[in-house]
Specification:
Layout lengths: L19 H15 L4 E13 L1 E6 L4 E6 L31 H13 L6 E4 L6 E5 L3 E2 H21 L3 E3 L15 E7 L2 E2 L12 H12 L1 H8 L5 H4 L9 E5 L5 E4 L12 E3 L8 H17 L21 H4 L9 H10 L2 H4 L8
Helix pairs in contact: 1-7, 2-3, 4-7, 5-9
Length: 354
């Protein structure tokens, strides 16, 4: 029996201050008590790879690994003749997508245990990359669902003699696994991020929130991307978000405003750097705290040099690209950024200095 619960001190039964669920709850309470909004709404995307065989060996005289997927043209022994080329799997259909039925089994179980699913599809990574996405949910429901989705995905794969991994960069030279977080704020039943007059349909409140996220982005990575492997994914050339700016179409931007989200209740942006090695409660709480800080300090990203930049920044000259800051390239760099920038997290005693 596995279960998700609140953690209490064994003797006093007081809520454990460092319980990640409690930290997320305190962040949401700070949002509501500030009067900014009465709900934060989240929509994480779950990217993962499914492999047919994973073998590794680390000893005093050997270091080796091998990963096989029947969707890879490197495994000709599969003999079916349908392969996804490198970077060529995005929304591919059967028979190239050989994992449709397996993902459907995952979704069936998720729905049986009360987790709604928006859709599932094959992702851009050629051999075995998939995505499952939930609809927009409140912070605690979304974070709890994150734990259960990862469990169900791994177990269904295992019961079908396959291996599922959310590792940010399991394959060299192929697209990595992100965990993009769509986010928005509601107050009195209305989306605070919507403004019909703005080019991107984003309100000034949404822009201030974006300003907070981008200002604190290097420090946030210590909590949203807390593994050394995370920084194997955050490299140019794989649609990875490596630049600190926002955009409506540039996938290398830390924040992307989806053009398809035009419904007033669903206008939002997605924060793209995180990956699934994060603790979802800590990651969401940290992102929310950065957004609250941006709103309180009225950090306008358009005036802080954070865009919007909608053209392909990789076509810019080196001189032009100097105006864009980059995300940390290692966990050590991210931890140093957090050490130098964490006052926004301990505001309202949501996180502790420790």
């Amino acid at each position: 029996l596995s279960f998700i619960s609140n953690i209490l001190e064994a003797d006093t039964k007081v809520k454990f201050f460092r319980d990640p669920r409690e930290i997320a709850r305190r962040a949401e309470n700070l949002l509501t008590s500030s009067g900014i909004a009465d709900q934060s709404i989240w929509g994480p995307e779950f990217e993962f790879y499914i492999f047919d065989k994973v073998v590794f060996d680390n000893g005093t005289n050997v270091a080796a690994y091998r990963v096989d997927s029947e969707e890879s043209d490197a495994k000709a022994s599969a003999g079916h003749g349908f392969f996804n080329p490198t970077h060529g799997g995005y929304h591919t259909i059967p028979p190239r997508d050989q994992l449709f039925d397996l993902r459907s089994k995952m979704v069936e179980i998720l729905q049986q245990i009360g987790i709604p699913v928006k859709y599932h599809h094959h992702e851009v990574g050629g051999p075995g990359q998939c995505e499952i996405e939930t609809p927009l949910l409140t912070i605690m429901v979304s974070a709890d669902a994150s734990m259960m989705i990862k469990y169900v995905v791994r177990m269904v794969a295992y019961l079908n003699n396959k291996t599922a991994t959310f590792l940010p960069k399991p394959l060299f030279g192929e697209a990595g696994n992100g965990m993009h977080f769509h986010q928005l704020l509601f107050k009195n039943g209305k989306n605070l991020f919507f403004d019909a007059q703005n080019k991107y349909l984003l309100s000034q409140t949404a822009l201030f929130y974006i300003g907070g996220l981008l200002t604190h982005a290097p420090a946030l990575l210590a909590l949203t991307n807390p593994s050394t492997n995370s920084y194997r994914r955050l490299v140019p050339g794989f649609e990875a978000p490596v630049n600190i700016f926002f955009s409506s179409g540039n996938r290398s931007a830390a924040i992307r405003v989806p053009k398809y989200a035009t419904n007033p209740d669903q206008v939002r942006f997605e924060y793209r750097p995180p990956d699934a090695t994060c603790n979802p409660y800590l990651a969401m709480a940290a992102m929310l705290m950065a957004g609250i800080d941006g709103i309180n300090r009225k950090i306008d990203p358009t005036k802080a040099g954070f865009g919007p930049f909608d053209d392909d920044v990789f076509t810019w000259t080196l001189e032009e690209r100097k105006k864009i800051s980059n995300l940390p390239t290692s966990l050590d760099e991210a931890l140093r950024a957090l050490e130098n920038d964490h006052d926004f997290l301990i505001s309202g005693d949501v996180f502790s200095e420790e």
